[in-house]
Amino acid sequence: MQPPAVPPVADRRPTSREIHGHTRVDDYEWLREKDSPEVVAHLEAENAHTQERTAHLADLRQSIFEEIKARTRETDLSVPTRNRGHWYYGRTFAGKEYGATCRVPVSDPDDWTPPTPAEDCAPDEPALPGEQVLLDLDALAEGHEFFSLGGSAISPDGNLLAYSTDTVGDERYTVRVKDLTTGGLLDDEITGVIGGATWDRAGEHLFYTTVDDSWRADKIWRHRLGTAQADDELVHHETDGRFWVGVGRTRTDRFIVVAAGSKVTSEYRYLDADHPELGLQVFAERLEGVEYSLDHAVIGGEDRFLVLHNASGPDFEIGTAPIAPTPIADLDPLVPHDPEVRLEDVDAFAGHLVVHQRSNGLTQLRIIELGADGPGDDYLVEFDKPLYTVGSGGNPGFFQPTVRIGWTTMAVPSSVYDYDVRTRELTLLKQAPVLGGYDPADYQEHRLWATAEDGERIPISIVCRRDAREDETMGSAPLPTLLYGYGAYEASMDPYFSVARLSLLDRGAAFAIAHVRGGGEMGRRWYDDGKLMRKQNSFSDFVACARHLVDTGWTTPGTLVAEGASAGGLLMGAVANQAPEMFAGIVAGVPFVDALTTMLDATLPLTVTEYDEWGNPEEDPAVYEYMASYAPYDNVAARPYPPILAETSLNDTRVLYVEPAKWVARIRATNPEADVLLRTEMSAGHGGVSGRYKAWHDRAFSLAWMLDRMGLADC
């Protein structure tokens, strides 16, 4: 038997800091020097060690990659979306990483049925008659290890395309403008942009956002086509370090909207294209703890601002206001606050409103029809499955009579529907193809409920093959299980389908999502109960879900693997310290495991804007004590840890690579026998590698390691 490989050993170079009467000693802060050849060499040594320790899984990794590839229709077409005079869609091609964005002209202005390509359309032929390739993404990515399209926006007249690209992974994008009538690029080039750019109604200016040294989006600029970036006008500068900004245009095209927000407070400004002389106006002054959004609607023939806000209750209500600055207290109620229904978003169209909401842990899509006299029928779009995720998107036209809907379950692939508000007909346009004879009926889905330490009921979504258990009763034989969790920022981890996940399920494993507090699955209170001084609830909820799966016979600690990423990586680090005996392995992706160090340094990316989520341990001794009680890096101890795979990216600007690098070094130093691996992508950002084939290989690596921990590597 080959002896285990010897892992890299990071030197201990202690630094210390006195704070609130405590001395914090950190042996590995020197790993923060990203440009140091010594640090790079250490990360590369960690990568080599990880490859050596997982070499026995090489064939399994390749098999999983081939399974993902075989189940995916590599040459495919998205459902076209109508925007003014064209249908827009994306294409993918076998053997290519990124694909292309295309459009064709609308042939009948009264026909809202998307065109469909011929079944036997060849990759080198137009998918639809009159196809125009807007962006060849593989050509743009050529010569770059990493490539990301930040956004693309068509000018109102349809003749210009503004698009942004990142070829490093640090999410600083460069905006270029393509003339779609000639195919050439304009001279305009805007660098250092976060995301994409927004056209004004006249198609003469672009609005965009830049960040400060701490990676906080703090400035909105206006760029006039044909001029240098140095001449751009600063439209808004947000000086409060807790707030970040963004810019967009209402669906009606009338308003440019500038949003400023912290984790708990919002403020919107608007620029009226009908009255540009008024300049940028504040709609409602910021009030601490009051969040709101702003849209433009026409209700009963009258122009109104549509405002989603939480001034009347934590789960939000919808109000309206005249086209003028208006205090939140003076809004006219449209949809009142309901503690049983969390209103999450609202979109205005000429004939209806679309409300995104959730109730009892499930997403819902609500239609409010608009007539000549104002709001009319108010109802939910119904589906026949008990456990699903639904939302709307790809609806750019204010006057469109249809609502483009996305729907999925953990067993049913992502499905695209059009809902016709006039006829109330729901039409399935496309279900993501899964090749190889996939049948959703071969899988079973359940909603389970665990009981937390404080008595709260925590939902769990779980899926497995129908034949993986002896029968469908809860007393069936246990299954190796992957339990996923996040639990922060009110982000909901709703049930979703994954082609890659089938490589787990078809080998006899189950996949579960623990909908822990800190997320938004059960309304705003769910978020409030898992943040700041109640963050421990996220961790104890996850452990409670793990125990429930074990106690009810779904799985065993010896075959239960946990996974989480980013803030979910913090969750993984915490449960590794608090309940290591529950897990056979833990996968922590871009993990926020050195949370206390980060939150003690206001110069680091995003720290100040995160105070409303985690607290300010530098200013508040109580916050310091509380964070120190759970921060994974600070709580590494001489205890048995389950095997851990930590995955990160060198160019991540959200959770710096140094956090998992330090965490792994401390675990190894404290527990020399610990089986802990670090894998760093040296040319990627927070989202990992770019390109679908690279992403499939990346996921195959993680899945192979999980299967090995579950005892299914040979299945």
TrEMBL record:
Provide the Peptidase S9 prolyl oligopeptidase catalytic domain boundaries: 496-711
SUPFAM superfamilies in UniProt: alpha/beta-Hydrolases, Peptidase/esterase 'gauge' domain
- Determine the domain of life of the protein's source: Bacteria
Region feature (Disordered): 1-21
Ranges of biased composition (kind: Basic and acidic residues): 10-21
Name the UniProt key words of this record, in alphabetical order: Hydrolase, Protease, Serine protease
- Which Pfam families does the record match to this protein? Peptidase_S9, Peptidase_S9_N
Name the record gives this protein = S9 family peptidase
Per the UniProt record, the source organism is Nocardioides deserti
